[in-house]
Amino acid sequence: MTVAGVSADRPQHRGDCPVSVLVVEDDVAITTQLVRGLNLAGYETSSVATGGDALSWPASDVVLLDLGLPDIDGVEVCRQLRARSDGAIIVITARGEETDRVLALDQGADDYIIKPFGLAELLARIRAVLRRSRPQDTELLRHGDLVVDLRTGKVTVAGREVSLTPSLGRTLVRPDEGPRRARRVTAQEARPA
After folding, report:
1. Domains of the chain and any CATH numbers
2. What is the pTM of this model?
3. Alpha-carbon separation of residue 120 from 12, 21, 38, 117 (angstroms)
4. Rounded to an integer, what distance in angstroms lies between the CA atom of residue 61 and that of residue 171?
5. Per-residue pLDDT reduced to its tens digit, 1-16
6. Contact indicator for 37, 7 with CB cutoff of 8 Å
7. How buried is residue 116: exposed, middle or buried, by Cβ count under 10 Å (0-12/13-18/19+)?
């Protein structure tokens, strides 16, 4: 993997939030190169060396996951990450057999790249999975901790999904009307899901 020629004009963002990438890799040299390259490309990057640490880490927008981890098989880590998060998972591994690729993809990976690989290709794959997995900024309404996904109708406050009454849901997410208007929501209208 090479880092030469990679730079970011500005940090990678989706809406108001920087794109977070978690590198799950036990090889220190590979981790160092990945983190350096991703930081240069404008991503907010963290790294862990074990599956257990990955599973206890807060959800990230993208997880780069090695399958050969010292404590838990990477495919199992992938399955557990997918069960709790919609974040993109890209497997980065030396395992190149078709059965390994199929198993990881069936357990929740969004993409699979075999080592060695170039940073430019990895960055392109990250951009591709983000396009597929995250709504476009124009489909999100944000106000402080409140986020309304106009495409799906999902509403979250401080990262927790909120259940809406049917009438309030129609008011917030009605594609056949003109400009959307915001109004104060009462406690009775917004109750935890």
Report:
1. 13-133 (3.40.50.2300), 137-192 (no CATH)
2. 0.67
3. 15, 16, 10, 9
4. 29
5. 444 445 444 456 655 5
6. no
7. exposed
